Amino acid sequence: MKKIILTLLAIALTGCSSPYVYHVEPTQLQSNETQYDIGSVTVNLELGHGAISGDESFASEAVLKKQFEDALVATMEEKGIYGAASGYSVVVDIDYKRMFNLGGKALNKPEVSHSVSVFDSENKKLASFAVGKYTTGYGTFGNAAVNLQIAAFTWGAEDEPRDVKVVAEAIVNQLADLGN
Asked: Smallest Cα–Cα separation from 178: which of 29, 35, 36?
C-alpha cells in the first residue's frame, strides 16, 4: 500500500511541473512585471503539402518574420511587458509550417512550435520555455467561423496575419507568466 501511495504521489508531482526552465535560481524575473526587449526573432517557414512551386501570393519567410516581430512587440506593449531599455532580451525561434488546402490556393491552420530564451544585459541565459507542435485557436465561435472559411477554400494569404497574431499572443502570454 505504501508503494502505491508513493508511486501515485510521484506521478502527481511530475504532472505539476512548470513549463519554464530557470537557468539562474532564484530567478530575478517577475511574472507580469518584468519588461523585455526583442533580441531576435527567427522564423523557419516550411511549406506543407499542396504548396505550388513558385507561387508568391503568400508571405515570404522574411515578410513572415517581420509580421511576427511587429505582432510580438504590439502584444508585449498591450500587456505592459515591453521595455527596450529593460536589460532583458528575448530570443524567439518559431517553426511555422504553412498548411494548404487542396489546390494550394487557400490555407488551413498552420502547424507551429516555438522556443523562447531570456537573457540579461550580460548575455547570460536566465530562463527558457518551448511549446511543441500546435495550431492556432480562435475560441469556440471564432474557430467555427475560421473552419467554415477553410472548408470553403476562402482562408487565404490575407488571413495569415491573424494566425501570426494568435501565435504572438500565445508566446507573449507565456512570457508574461515567466518568473515569480
From this structure: 29
Question: Which residues, in sequence order, are CB contacts of 34 under 8 Å at separation 6+?
Answer: 28, 81, 86, 88, 178, 179
Query: Residues of the chain with pLDDT > 90: what percent?
Result: 64
Q: Which three cell numbers stand for residue 125?
A: 541565459
Check if the beta carbon of residue 108 is closer than 8 Å to that of residue 120. no
Indicate if the alpha-carbon torsion angle 178, 114, 66, 99 is positive or negative. Answer: negative
- Per the DSSP assignment, residues forming a β-bridge with 116 are 92, 129
Residue 17 has pLDDT above 70, yes or no: no
In the DSSP assignment, the letter for residue 60 is -
- ∠ CA 114-158-55 to the nearest 5 degrees? 85
DSSP 27: -
